[in-house]
Give the backbone structure.
Amino acid sequence: MCSLEKRGSLFVLTLTGDGQHRLNPTLLDGISAALCSVKSEASGGPSALITTAQGNFFSNGYDIAWAKSGGPAAATNDRLLLMSSKFRSIIGELISLPMPTIAAVTGHATAAGFIFALCHDYILMRKDKGFLYMSELEISLPVPAYVIAVLRSKIGSPAARRDVMMRAAKLTAEAAVDRGIIQSAHDSAEETVVAAVKFGEELVRRKWDGHVYGQIRMVMLADVLSTLSYDDILEDPGQLEKLESRL
């Protein structure tokens, strides 16, 4: 489901396989374990994390099919809550990681997959295939407060946030560069990863104190961290009932 490789001072986390990299508990646990390994090995000097994926998808969001495969509605609710809890933990882990983080988006990043990419410090993206997309408006799903907090913290332009959330725009890499959402656009998946490695090496050469870097990020994203303990949609019975009818 995912692999972690050390390349010099860089950690490369790859979502493996040609599927959609749906965020189910198995993949979320794998990502979390990889981030824990990165954090535990980060004391050896300056380093950086690159997250990328194989195939046509970076991540297509939550694994709704898995959530609905548990049988009765109560089981579906429990599975949705489990995915939300694990995903929110990963957001917190990325924010507290003592090093720069780069998402090399080599395919579509949708809904929670887009938020996962945004939780990195930088996004580099291929421009020949793939888009960034928040699909909730199109499928009539409410958006939890922690997701809105990430979007507010990571997308500076109100007009860009409007396009992402209130127009459900499918943004190509070039459109995302224009809106200040991503760092740069590249001609292919391979070139995106190469550029991410080069950029990561540049950051490592700055020889920043990783713990100071992580602390600064945690203060900057304090508004996001304050929302991660609770999913106001899935843990609200009224909202959850509405959600069930739309899945």
Residues 4 and 33 are 10 Å apart (CA to CA). The mean pLDDT is 94. The first strand starts at residue 2 and ends at 7. The chain is about 50% helix and 15% strand.
